[in-house]
Please model this.
Amino acid sequence: MNIEEYIQRAISLAETYRYTAKPNPMVGAILLKDKTIIAEGAHELFGSNHAEVNVIESAKKKLGEKFKSFSELTLICTLEPCNHRGKTPPCTEAIINSGIKKVIIGCQDPNSRMSGKSIKKLIENNIEVKVGFCENDIKEQNKFFFYKHNNQKPYLTVKIASSSDGKSHYRNKNRTYITSVSSRDDVQQLRAQYDAILTGGNTLINDNPRMNARVNFEINQPKKILLSNKNNLDINQQFFQDSQVEIVKEKNLETVINNYKNKDYCSILIEAGPKLVNAFLSTNLVDEVIVYQSPHPLGPNGVDWFNKDITVESLGFNLESSYKIDDDTKKIFLKC
Model:
């Protein structure tokens, strides 16, 4: 195997923990002696050991059996190791203290406060460092993480469910399921990808939603952000039951989102009614719009998602993909 093949293997190791490492990036690591894999590791759980520490700890169990000294080993990791003390100690310390003398890094950390500093630290401690392998694959795997640090804001996606005639719900506010069971199941998978879900007070009062990710695998449930000035919120509603909820009373949406640039959220899924959705779409904040469209109309008693002659495309988005889920159509639009 060449370096790229080992990096690809490490990327696969990282992928296993897509839903439990977030909002941290997925990172995989391998320790080699010549071309023999001695140990493998990944960042498995947010707040726990990073991939580099896990692979070193795994290799220690084979010390004296598979190798005599860590100086014989090469560390391969998908992302630049951390050089700061957060929820865990710096990975650079673990690497230096282990005695490893060669490190191959797939991609540099996009965080401007960290980027390159770990590499410099390792080199200063007489460790040979090579950087830049399969970078596009690593960036794609950690799309939200790279976006957050390159743009100084979380990646924002608006999700809506629409009838065939562009309606959101009935005027009488009676709750109705617009799309199929399969589409609603797909939404659960979508929610699982995001660090937070944002909604408004009207949606909370009218729909009593749970807004969690109901999936059959282990995940870090997305946090919940409620934009509302209402004083009549019932904290016994199911929305408040299974996740951390942040209630935000700020009305300026740019200020709201700007407040998350230094927090852990790398991605936010917006699930709200037409008023709040259109408010977000009138800004330049939204990066993606996902529309689940039913083949069935709601008719004149339905509430429009958009004003007449307004489409997702006219709001500055291009259709990226479109496919069927049962009788529904899922459309993904990206900012132009």
Observations:
- Residues 3-15 form the longest helix (13 residues).
